[in-house]
């Protein structure tokens, strides 16, 4: 699940103002390392042995 989707769904549960959630999202985006967030696994190859990857 995307990091920003998690923020949008769960941070409001802590009664944080939307502006705080937005600022946190912007700050988090500055430090993201997409090259480390995705593996080198091909979804097509993974689907052969993993039904969840299909």
Report on the structure:
It is built from 4 helices and no strands. The chain has 54 residues and is an all-alpha fold. The mean pLDDT is 75. The chain starts with a helix and ends in a 5-residue tail after the last helix.
What layout of secondary structure does this protein have?
Layout: H1 3-10, H2 18-30, H3 34-37, H4 43-49
Which labels suit this protein?
single chain, 54 residues, mainly alpha, 59% helix, 0% strand, elongated
What is this structure, in a nutshell?
The chain is mainly alpha-helical. The chain has helices at 3-10, 18-30, 34-37, 43-49. The chain has 4 helices and no strands.
Q: Rg from C-alpha positions? A: 16 Å
The fraction of residues in strands falls at under 5%
CA(first)-CA(last) distance: 16 Å
The total of beta strands comes to: 0
Count of alpha and pi helical runs: 4
Question: How would you characterize the largest beta sheet?
Answer: none
Structural class: mainly alpha
Helix content: 55-70%
Unreliable runs? none
* SSE run: HHHH
Can you give the mean pLDDT?
75
Shape: elongated
């Amino acid at each position: 699940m995307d990091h920003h989707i998690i923020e949008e769904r769960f941070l409001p549960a802590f009664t944080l103002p939307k502006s705080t959630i937005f600022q946190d999202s912007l700050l988090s985006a500055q430090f993201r390392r997409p090259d480390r967030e995705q593996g080198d696994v091909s979804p097509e190859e993974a689907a052969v042995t993993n039904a969840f990857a299909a």
